[in-house]
Amino acid sequence: MTKDEAWNLANHWVAAWNAHDLDLIMTHYEDEIELTSPVAAKLLGTPDGKVMGKVNLRAYFQRGLEAYPELRFHLQDVLWGVSSVVLCYTNHKGTRTAEFMELSAPGKVARVVANYSA
Q1: What is the 3-class SS of the chain, one letter each residue?
Q2: What angle do CA 80, 86, 88 make, to 5 degrees?
Q3: What was the pLDDT predicted at 104?
Q4: CA torsion 45→49→55→58, rounded to 10°?
Q5: What pLDDT shows up at residue 114?
Q6: Among 43, 41, 42, 11, residue whose Cα is nearest residue 28
Q7: Which residues in the chain show pLDDT less than 70?
């Protein structure tokens, strides 16, 4: 992963979320995606905060978009590794977030670990 590839992925990801375009959001993820997030734990009532598989992830994201119609992300920074990126952004409430995204060979997100400041 190069710096330009990482920023390109991040900018497309943020634009899809800010458009609330669920179909476009989902193009970033592998079918066997695994997401771990404290927001998922809260919204879904699951203590481990895990969402497994693209169908379940789509349902979770749909629920999140419905619960937070004012949701908007502001990209702050992008860190890149060999096959991963970390997106640092704030949301509409000012919560700082960092999402570690592990990428598959085709460049789709295979695993996400989300971390929040509040």
Answers
A1: CCHHHHHHHHHHHHHHHHCCCHHHHHCCEEEEEEEECHHHHHHHCCCCCEEECHHHHHHHHHHHHHHCCCCCEEEEEEEECCCEEEEEEEECCCCEEEEEEEECCCCCEEEEEEEECC
A2: 125
A3: 96
A4: 80
A5: 96
A6: 11
A7: none
